[in-house]
TrEMBL record:
Enzyme superclass (EC): oxidoreductase
Originating gene: fucO
PROSITE patterns: ADH_IRON_1 (PS00913), ADH_IRON_2 (PS00060)
Domain named Fe-containing alcohol dehydrogenase-like C-terminal: residues: 189-381
Family recorded in the similarity comment: Belongs to the iron-containing alcohol dehydrogenase family.
UniProt cross-references to Pfam families, sorted A to Z: ADH_Fe_C, Fe-ADH
Official protein name in the record: Lactaldehyde reductase
Keyword Oxidoreductase assigned: yes
């Protein structure tokens, strides 16, 4: 079996990296950008950091701001029509996962109009054409959507999120500029950072993991563990470490998948509108406890990457517990809750069935039945 790696054609990293957007747009011969960015980023003049560069270089663009958290089928369809009306020939996605996911879905449907219903993109859709070119500029350090082949859309009617996995959706250019992330509030920094840690740990332990992705994931765990507390306090070093760490995690998990912490988080987001990173952070240590017997010596390396001392002197039971406790401590230190009051006993069957059907579930190192998932959901009630 061959292991496949998909990455951006080009990525730029470091303070001031956004200046490269104009150079890339000119080098590719693009004419007009469809700039996808959410209303808050426009209001707080984050989007303008990019549009000012376009203005300075005489590059034409149109701003599209109908971007909502947990983008829906209707959001995507509205965006597709707006792109058609704009006369644009490429996208610039500025924001977190919502802007990125909306842009990917728009770009895919414009290039593959037979999928305009959106629902047919779920899973590994047989698209034929690469999406409209995307330049991705993340403003959160968490989703790594700028380097992944995944995006997530919410089906409001059916109260579920669905994952789309498609190498055709990857942005051609990623601009990882920590200065674009400096305006993130503490709560969002914490939740997106824990999403990134969940990517790294689930990617490291998924059934499809292999040596190259293990390398990415362990470095990501190390960087995130060292940097997240500082990023929440808005230190320069914390922001820079998280910007790089979350991207490296994306380089890995995009190519090997995730597990049930993510499938359960998707369900919580669809039903209760729980912020994705918060849902991931609540589920991660619980799922780690569930999975531990199927992870060999990997929890020792997770514990080591998270800064736990003397792991080589520990028994298997001790280092597995140490890894889980390190995750719990980091989550608590950045203010993530451990319980979700909205969940009721009568909700559990639907939640578990939805999580079981999610595209991330098959990658989990330990198979989980609907009954298993019900018991795991109970732990955050």
């Amino acid at each position: 079996m061959a292991n496949r790696i998909n990455l951006n054609q080009t990525s730029y990293h470091g303070a001031g990296a956004i200046e490269e957007i104009a150079n890339e747009a000119k080098a590719h011969g693009f004419n007009k950008a469809f700039v996808c960015s959410d209303p808050d980023l426009i209001k707080f003049h984050v989007t303008s950091k990019v549009t000012d560069i376009l203005d300075k270089n005489g590059l034409e663009y149109e701003v599209y701001s109908d971007i909502k958290p947990n983008p829906t089928i209707e959001n995507v369809q509205h965006g597709v029509q707006a792109f058609k009306n704009s006369g644009a020939d490429y996208l610039i996605a500025i924001g977190g996962g919502s802007s990125m996911d909306t842009s990917k879905a728009i770009g895919i449907i414009i290039a593959n109009p037979e999928f305009e219903d959106v629902r047919s993109l779920e899973g590994v859709a047989p698209t034929k054409n690469p999406c409209v070119p995307i330049i991705a500029v993340p403003t959160t350090a968490g989703t790594a959507a700028e380097v992944t082949i995944n995006y997530v859309i919410t089906d409001v009617e059916r109260k579920r999120k669905f994952v789309c996995v498609d190498p055709h959706d990857m942005p051609i250019i990623a601009i990882i500029d920590p200065e674009m992330m400096s305006s993130m509030p503490k709560g969002l920094t914490a939740s997106t950072g824990m999403d990134a840690l969940t990517h790294a740990i689930e990617g490291y332990t998924t059934k499809a993991a292999w040596e190259m992705t293990d390398m990415f994931h362990l470095k990501a765990i190390e960087l995130i563990s060292k940097s997240l507390r500082g990023a929440v306090d808005n230190t320069k070093e914390g922001r820079e470490g998280m910007a790089l760490g979350q991207y490296i995690a994306g380089m890995g998990f995009s190519n090997v998948g995730l597990g049930i912490a993510h499938s359960m988080a998707h369900t919580l987001g669809a039903v209760y509108d729980t912020p994705h990173g918060v849902a991931c952070a609540m589920m991660l240590p619980i799922v780690m406890e569930y999975n531990q017997e199927c992870t060999g010596e990997k929890y020792r390396e997770i514990a080591r990457a998270m800064g736990v001392q003397s792991v080589d002197a520990m028994s298997q039971e001790e280092y597995r517990k140490a890894a889980i406790e390190a995750v719990k401590k980091l989550s608590a230190d950045v203010g993530i809750p451990t319980k979700l009051d909205a969940i009721k006993e009568e909700n559990l069957q639907f939640l578990a069935e939805s999580a079981h059907a999610d595209a991330c579930a098959p990658g989990n190192p330990k198979d989980a039945s609907v009954e298993d998932l019900k018991e795991l959901f109970r732990k955050i009630m």
